[in-house]
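Quick one: structure tokens for this chain, please?
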Amino acid sequence: MFNIKNSAQHKSLIMLALPMIFSNITVPLLGLVDTAVIGHLEHAYYLGGATVGAMIITFITWLCGFLRMSTTGLSAQAYGANDASLGIVILLRGILVATLVGASLILSQVFYLDGALFLAGGSEQVQLYARQYSDIRIWGLPAALSNLVILGWLLGNHQAKSVMWILIFTNLINLGLDLLFVIGFGWKVQGIAFATLIAEYSGLTLGLLVVFIKFNPPLKRAFYDYKALLVAVFRKNELLTYFQLNRDILIRTLCLELCFVFITFQGARLGDNAVAANAILLNFILLISFGLDGVANAAEVLVGKAKGAKDYSSLNTVIKISLFWTGTFAVCYSMLFVLFGDIFITWITDIDEVIIFTEQYMFWIVLLPLIGCWCYLYDGIYIGLMQARAMRNSMIIATFGCFFPVWYILQGYGNHALWAALSIFLLARGLTLAWHYNYRVKVNF
């Protein structure tokens, strides 16, 4: 896969992937900082409550990941077709949907939060601090969801460095406020929530500013005839296509979220130490997945561009190169946790019971990059191709045919059953998408 003939394509992928890797890992790194700040408080239930509360809110943002995915794929194809006006329509439509979804969740927050906390379970203290956290964070949903659209749109328009700097800025704001509110003011779990809320609106402000500066001429042309722009945004056929595409991505993401929420909620039922340990381990998984998503993000942009330009030779070359780099980065992540995993745990918490409990499960973190890297990449490829139905079907098979049956069979092994189920789940996604690409998609090229 790595040969001199494809050196330009390798360079193109890496030049897109590296900024995305650096920017992507700031998200889970910030989660690790949040976890570390709370993890050094005197009781495990602070960490447990913050984890459950964060899962309740991030369930929505991850569920609405279709906003980022569809925006990236559609804007990449518009970029490949050299259609700037269509790109502006895609951006505005996405922001409108994101704002409406966020506002709806705020209006119905009592019902949503009550139901989520009931399903979460956990000790009285975990429930208390989860409620404190989620009561604050839910007000950031319009900004968080709009950020998904803006970042996806910039990525689709080959603005990976802009995405990187927006995410770094947002996460530095969050980090600074974490330290000020929790350590300086002693606000504990509420301090973490307020820090993230302010950071989300700060990131939205910067994102809109970057779009205005980078794309001022096409924006001016589009808004000059604002009536035609609004007609294009609300055009019935395009809206139906948009929602059909997002429907499949939504179902796909819902299945994914069911698995991660189940791990968090089931861990809460196994005790405060289990939910605290799983919070640390899930942050490690997010660190790995967001890093590997850097290559997948680059692949989806290049695949979308090649498809928009109908250059199927380049498309296949991009996919081969992406497979090579995904495997390379997966090995690096595994080695990182082999060498430094125990040290990372002690950085995050100094509660002896949580450290000992977490160390029992570190071998899963070493294995998961090698098992799961392929599903992350193929997700990116299929987003670029805008073939959401295959992603949906693969996720349904992996969730209901693998994750839950494996957990049910192995549940006697406690927390190990959850991590075994997650491993098989990731493996099944990669295998089904690889099979579909080679025997259903590639032949059409």
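The chain has a mean pLDDT of 84.
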